[in-house]
Amino acid sequence: MNYPSWQSAFLETARELVQRVSGFIPNLLSAAILLLLGWLLARLIRLSIRKLMGLGLGRLSAARAVGNAVERSKLHYTIPSLTGSLAYWIILALFAAAAVERLELALADNLVSQLAFYLPRVPPGLLLVFAGVLLESTEDRVLVPARKFPQEASILANPEA
Q: What is the DSSP string of the chain?
């Protein structure tokens, strides 16, 4: 058995491992700092959005169809709370993407860039869902009276009958 070459191969591998880990630690620390700063900023913005919207817009929207639709959806959230949470998650996702990019891992960086590609599509999707909730509340105002008069409603549904 060639003991000196085995020992030197092990020592060389261990030395290379220590060198790579010590080179990765600054990237890991900067990614952790980015995540911490992003979390703090996201919490601060969520809180300020909730406070500012709660002052005027929350009361204004509660009197309108939007506020009624949110209440009828039984989400148990207010519009300022939903808006603040949306901003929180978007900011946190952006800082998480920056932290992963800082780690310089090619596969994770590619995955995060694909996620960031879809991130701008989230608010319009949420608006579509919210429009559906609004239409549902309008439907109840139209269909509830029709349920009170089933014969008239059946005539409207089947005019040939």
A: --HHHHHHHHHHHHHHHHHHHHHHHHHHHHHHHHHHHHHHHHHHHHHHHHHHHHHTHHHHHHTSHHHHHHHHTT----HHHHHHHHHHHHHHHHHHHHHHHHTT-HHHHHHHHHHHHHGGGHHHHHHHHHHHHHHHHHHHHHHHHHHH-HHHHHHHH-TT-
Between CA 49 and CA 28 the distance in angstroms is: 31
Contacts 24+ apart (CB under 8 A), 37-41: 37/95, 38/91, 38/92, 38/94, 38/95, 38/96, 38/98, 38/99, 39/92, 39/95, 41/91, 41/95
pLDDT at residue number 126: 77
Report domain extents, the chain. 25-120
Nearest-5° Cα angle at 66, 62 to 72: 85
* Structure tokens that stand for 81 in this block: 């709370």
- The percentage of the chain sitting over the pLDDT mark of 70, rounded to a whole number, equals 66
